[in-house]
């Protein structure tokens, strides 16, 4: 393939990711598209000054689009004269910060500050005035803001307490913005490579001093100076109890560079330990440690 065609191909890929950044309503916003923006400008510069200027203007427009994405009916069709219909009798629970959602009763669940309730009747409709995008634990939720208050994503997606007249999010925008999750692929590939590594044969000493053969998963040994045949300790003496199990620690023997260990001898506590759950019969999590 001629070099010019290869450049056009890469330019096209960059354009797709820039568009994905423009409609991305996730917590990362336009940021994951920045490398593709810079690459597109560099490629356009080799073509002509006009191409570079056009590309830069397109990138500025994409960033501006992303900054107002929460108010854009192209991404959120429900904003274009949309409304919700109440599917069952209940209440709209609203906290002092404006958040809330449908409630069958007047439960406050505590800790939410001042709470108000508005009675809802099946069949009532309320106009959409906006959407509220949230990012709990790096996930993304789209709540619907109406003339009487806010309904959560759960209210219309899973619980079906309400029915929107239009899709909350455009299917094409949702799929396109998904490309901005590409950084996660590197972590996935890293985990995939780690899980394909062989398990390590070790000797496992328990609290009674008994030593058994065992195998450690790459998840446990990764980044630790441990080699096959080493002795590790499964320490459950101060393990916090959990329902049906306890959280023990896999401890490793290592040399202390500050000579806290007996001279020339390894001791525990010099290599970071690893937590592992152990059930009531003394069997540890088989995804981390297998005792033979």
What layout of secondary structure does this protein have?
Blueprint: H1 3-23, H2 34-47, H3 49-67, E1 83-86, E2 90-95, E3 100-103, E4 115-120, E5 125-134, E6 141-146, E7 150-151, H4 153-157, E8 162-164, H5 171-177, H6 182-195, E9 200-205, E10 211-216, H7 218-221, E11 231-235, E12 241-242, E13 245-254, E14 267-279, E15 289-291
Parallel strand pairs: 9-11
Antiparallel strand pairs: 1-5, 1-8, 2-3, 2-4, 5-6, 6-7, 9-10, 10-15, 11-13, 12-13, 13-14
Outline the structure in words.
Helix 1 packs parallel to helix 3 (49-67) and helix 1 (3-23) packs across helix 5. The chain has 292 residues and is an alpha+beta fold. It contains seven helices and 15 strands. The termini are far apart.
Described by strand count, sense and barrel closure, the largest sheet is: 7 strands, mixed
Which secondary-structure class do the elements indicate?
alpha+beta
Whole-Å distance between the termini? 56 Å
What form results from the Cα inertia axes? flat
Overall mean confidence score, pLDDT: 85
Write a brief structural summary.
The protein is α+β, with helices and mostly antiparallel strands and 292 residues long. Helices cover 29% and strands 29% of the residues.
Defining traits:
292 residues, alpha+beta, five-stranded antiparallel sheet, 7 helices
């Amino acid at each position: 393939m001629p070099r010019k065609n290869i450049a056009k191909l890469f330019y096209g890929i960059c354009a797709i990711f820039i568009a994905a950044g423009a409609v991305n309503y996730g917590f990362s916003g336009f940021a994951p598209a920045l490398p593709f923006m810079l690459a597109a400008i560099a490629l356009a510069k080799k073509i002509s000054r006009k191409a570079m200027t056009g590309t830069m203007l397109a990138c500025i427009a994409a960033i501006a689009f992303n900054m107002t994405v929460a108010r854009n009916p192209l991404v959120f069709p429900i904003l274009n004269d949309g409304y919700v219909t109440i599917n069952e009798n209940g209440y709209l629970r609203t906290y002092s910060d404006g958040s809330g959602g449908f409630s069958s009763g007047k439960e406050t669940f505590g800790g939410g500050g001042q709470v108000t309730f508005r009675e809802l009747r099946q069949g009532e409709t309320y106009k959409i005035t906006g959407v509220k995008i949230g990012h709990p634990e790096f996930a993304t939720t789209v709540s619907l803001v109406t003339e009487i208050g806010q309904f959560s994503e759960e209210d219309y997606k899973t619980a079906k307490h309400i029915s929107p007249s239009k899709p909350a999010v455009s299917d094409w925008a949702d799929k396109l913005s998904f490309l901005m999750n590409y950084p996660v692929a590197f972590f996935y590939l890293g985990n995939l490579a780690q899980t394909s590594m062989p398990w390590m044969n070790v000797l496992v000493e328990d609290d009674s001093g008994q030593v058994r053969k065992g195998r450690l998963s790459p998840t446990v040994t990764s980044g630790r100076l441990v080699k096959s045949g080493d002795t590790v300790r499964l320490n459950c003496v101060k393990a916090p109890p959990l329902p049906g199990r306890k959280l023990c620690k896999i401890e490793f023997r290592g040399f202390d560079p500050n000579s806290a260990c007996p001279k020339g001898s390894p001791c525990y506590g010099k290599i970071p330990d690893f937590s592992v759950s152990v059930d009531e019969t003394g069997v540890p999590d088989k995804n981390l440690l297998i005792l033979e």
